[in-house]
Design brief:
Largest sheet: 8 strands, mixed
Number of strands: 8
CATH class of the largest domain: Alpha Beta
CATH architecture of the largest domain: 3-Layer(aba) Sandwich
Strand order of the largest sheet: 3-2-1-4-5-6-7-8
Order of helices and strands: EHEHEHEHEHHEHEHEHHHHHHH
Distance between the termini: 54 Å
Structural class: alpha/beta
């Protein structure tokens, strides 16, 4: 553990899924880590086997990582609290967390997605629940970060964004390792919406795989996705002109749209093979963040008259039962 006088007593991570558990491996190099989980089997595995076989099999957890069932036991006294739960429970968990925060506690959101009613990114959902002092100590993380890879020490680079970049730098110091690198930025909207939009386009890239349309088509879709992300991120408030080309934009899109570990890419592929898999779209136990994002962002893009043919393609496939392969061919033919 690389502790110093400036390191906190412990770091709390809310959510012991693959991302939360992988971040625990990084954070444990700097301070003891307390993972909060609602799943008793996960807590027991971590205590007895030093491994989260349910979500991050094969990665041994340091002795300084422990798991608890009560949120206050994780949050109270923490120098940094990381929110690493699915988007549909971010508000509830943030509200529970807020009651136990110290005024000096840093808060990091790693959840991806938007509130379907307001289009607020998850960092804004977290912020709405925080006490006033902690609102200024809030950051968000996004970038190409397959949990099994960076937990195993494979080189990875992500963005951490905060309105005050000094806060992003403080968070980075509590998570960085020689192989898990963090680039701080003040472009909160670009970082947050990049992490949301990449899930939308990963669905389209998965559909391309399922329809067996080949590398040329996938490269065309990837290029169109970057163009659309740029238009949408600007409309949603990104402050950096090249946010789409950063780690939280193109970097995360590439990983999520090509990796076999990506739930969104896999779901897009499955839509071509078994249309009945649409049943899973409304199942809270199935975290397919791209579906929620499409449902929120497609109407926004139409209202704003944003040119987004890929977004609308995915919308038609998900919610109008359109054939993925046919829709991709039609979209490419109109270029």
């Amino acid at each position: 553990m690389l502790q110093s006088a400036h390191m906190p007593k412990h770091i709390a991570i809310l959510g012991a899924g693959n991302m939360g558990t992988a971040l625990a491996v990084c954070a444990a190099r700097h301070a003891p880590v307390v993972l909060w989980s609602v799943e008793s089997d996960v807590i027991e595995q971590i205590a007895k086997r030093r491994e989260n076989t349910k979500y991050l099999a094969g990665v041994r957890l340091p002795r300084t990582v422990r798991a608890v069932a009560r949120i206050e036991n994780a949050v109270e006294g923490a120098g940094l609290v990381i929110v690493a739960v699915p988007s549909h429970v971010v508000q509830t968990v943030s509200r529970q967390m807020a009651r136990h925060l110290s005024p000096t506690t840093l808060v990091l959101n790693v959840a991806k997605g938007v509130d379907e009613a307001s289009l607020a990114p998850m960092i804004d959902v977290v912020e709405d629940e925080l006490p006033r002092p902690n609102k200024k100590l809030l950051a968000t993380l996004s970038g190409p970060s397959i949990a099994t890879e960076f937990a195993a020490g494979q080189p990875t680079v992500v963005n951490v964004a905060a309105h005050d970049v000094r806060v992003a730098r403080r968070v980075a110091r509590l998570l960085e390792t020689p192989t898990f690198r963090i680039r701080p930025t003040a472009d909160v909207a670009g970082t947050a919406f990049g992490g949301t939009l990449k899930n939308v386009y990963a669905l389209a890239l998965g559909m391309c795989d399922g329809a067996k349309l080949g590398a040329n088509t996938k490269a065309a879709l990837l290029t169109l996705a970057v163009e659309e992300m740029n238009r949408l991120m600007r409309a949603l408030g990104a402050t950096s002109s090249d946010a789409v080309h950063g780690f939280a934009g193109l970097g995360d899109l590439f990983v999520t749209g090509t990796s076999t570990h990506s739930r969104n890419r896999r779901f897009g592929e499955e839509l071509c093979l078994d249309a009945s898999c649409r049943i899973r779209m409304n199942d809270p136990a199935q975290t397919i963040e791209g579906v929620r994002a499409v449902r929120a962002l497609a109407p926004f893009a139409k209202r704003k008259k944003i040119v987004a043919p890929l977004l609308f393609l995915v919308d038609r496939v998900l919610f109008a039962g359109a054939d993925p392969g046919r829709e991709i061919r039609k979209t490419i033919s109109r270029i």
